[in-house]
Amino acid sequence: MAMHRALFLIFAIFLIHNQHTYSWFRGVNDDQVSKHRIVDVDEMEDDAWTMVQKNGNQFVVNDQPFYVNGFNTYWLMVFAAEESTRAKVTDVFQQASAVGLTICRTWAFNDGQWRALQKKPSVYDEDVFKALDFVVSEAKRFKIRLILSLTNNWDSYGGKSQYVKWGNEAGLNLTNDDDFFTHPTLKSYYKSHVKTVLNRVNTITNMTYKDDPTIFAWELINEPRCPSDPSGDTLQEWIEEMAVYVKTIDPKHLVEIGLEGFYGVSTPNKVQYNPNTYAQQVGTDFIRNHQILGVDFASVHMYADSWISQSISDSHIAFIKSWMQSHIDDAEKYLGMPVVFSEFGVSTKDPGYNISFRDSLISTVYNTMLDSVRKGGSGGGSLVWQVFPDGTEYMDDGYAIILSKSPSTSNIISRHSTRLTLFNSLCKWKCHWGCKKKHGFDGFHYQDEL
Q1: How far are the Cα atoms of 136, 183, 267, 339 from residue 176, in angstroms, in the given order?
Q2: Model confidence at 399, in pLDDT bands (50, 70, 90)?
Q3: Phi-psi group of 207: left, alpha or beta (phi > 0 → left; psi -120 to 50 → alpha; rest → beta)
Q4: Quick one: pLDDT band at residue 427, thresholds 50, 70, 90?
Q5: Residues 286, 262: contact at Cβ < 8 Å?
């Protein structure tokens, strides 16, 4: 049986190289090939569900490269907490899986607000925790891994402002939300939350979160900013403390910060890549922040319509290209780690918006990523903001993509998934035969969809 399997794998790769390489990315039998060839190879590999790790500037599963194509859906835990909306969690995983998405980023926090996970410091709603258990178990069922964010810079779902409110309720007399990063009591609240989540035993799978390979990574905080200290020292110290703290509890999982990617005072030669001058005044410092013990990969967000101008413009595409390339280069030259573009999108509410522009923006992100992948670079993947299932339009912030109602966008996402599967499959096959994976894609070409 093993011999037949090996021979079939070799035959499948032979077909890919001889029949597929010349037609791939030229629009010839795209769907047919992806359905009948790439998926077969991927199914034959059928890797065990093991922890994702990193090796230098690449993610690996079972010592083989793993490239990310993913999405954000932040509200999964809250929807899972209500019987009337729980099915939407299954729907979004099912639809995302159908187009090949492999990573979902979502909140593992809801601090002191409606349907709060953490009602008060170290006081939890068990029903909401069971809802998070359901999210994790459903993700595993659809072979989707999770980036779980542990709190928010913004007041949505509580975040650092809620921690400050809790501090004031305890008599601390705090005056600035940035006290979240410095006050010992607030830091102890955050650490307690981290410890509780990481040590949680899933009531459905009976697996402790810190041992579950369904979790791709822990994110310290969504989009941290500390404008009260533009030097960046305050945030730097907080990241140093919390990254190591997470690793002391869970040394197995990857850790990332949750940064937007703005350049700070430590790299004056790089601030030219920032979308505006305000970006270097919010206390973040992309390269410096990621040179911290315990941080495994870099995170970057991309919102040209928020940062440059709301009106749709070709300048948005140009910014995306330079922003991505700059951070990929930094991850290779200075950080030696993968970089994930963990939020990107465009709002339907922007003046001049149309689906064609959204598709062009997404294709730009994917093609820039594929160029890095082909070279064995630090581009680790991207996560579109955001994928929603049918019937959740009332939650739409303008960026929601409902796959069933967006055939052109869905097709672009699906093709990108198939291409990453091809890269992974080719590299796996080559690595089994002793080739250097860094050079496994030499001579393999693609062309832009748009």
Answers
A1: 34, 11, 27, 31
A2: very high
A3: beta
A4: low
A5: yes
Which residues sit opposite 208 in a β-bridge?
201
Q: Is residue 91 part of a domain?
A: yes
* pLDDT tens, residue by residue, 39-97: 333 443 445 799 999 999 999 998 888 999 999 999 999 999 999 999 999 999 999 99
- Among 74, 115, 86, 79, smallest CA distance to 342 is for 74
Amino acid in position 283: G
pTM, 2 dp: 0.88
Return the closest-CA partner of residue 144 out of 107, 198, 92: 92
Nearest to 61 by CA among 83, 46, 74: 46
Q: What is the CATH number of the domain that holds 133?
A: 3.20.20.80
Nearest to 49 by CA among 211, 218, 254: 211
Residue 14 lies in a domain: no
Indicate whether 29 pLDDT > 90: no
Note whether residue 83 is domain-resident.
yes
Q: What is the dihedral of CA 190, 191, 194, 196, to 10 degrees?
A: -110
Burial of 323 (0-12, 13-18, 19+ CB in 10 A): buried
| Cα-to-chain-centroid distance, residue 387 | 13
Cβ-proximal residues to 290 (8 Å cutoff; 6+ apart), any chain = 257, 259, 298, 335, 337
The reported pLDDT for the residue numbered 428 is: 55
What is the tally of structural domains in the chain?
1
CB 112 within 8 Å of CB 166:
yes
Tell me the C-alpha distance between 125 and 127, whole Å. Answer: 5
85 is in which domain, residue-wise? 53-425
Residue 45 lies in a domain: no
Kindly report, residue by residue over 311-362, the tens digit of the pLDDT: 999 999 999 999 999 999 999 999 999 999 999 999 999 999 999 999 999 9
C-alpha 127/C-alpha 182 separation (Å) is: 32
**What percent of the chain has a predicted confidence (pLDDT) above 90?**
81
Provide the annotated active-site residues: 223, 343
Query: CA-CA distance, 280 to 263, in Å (whole number)?
Result: 6
Long-range interactions of 231-234: CB distance < 8 A, separation 24+: 231/265, 231/283, 232/264, 232/265, 232/266, 232/283, 232/284, 232/285, 232/288, 232/289, 234/178, 234/181, 234/182, 234/283
Query: Tokens at residue 55, please?
Result: 């090796």
Give the C-alpha separation, 198 to 195, whole Å. 5
Tell me, what DSSP letter sits at residue 270?
T
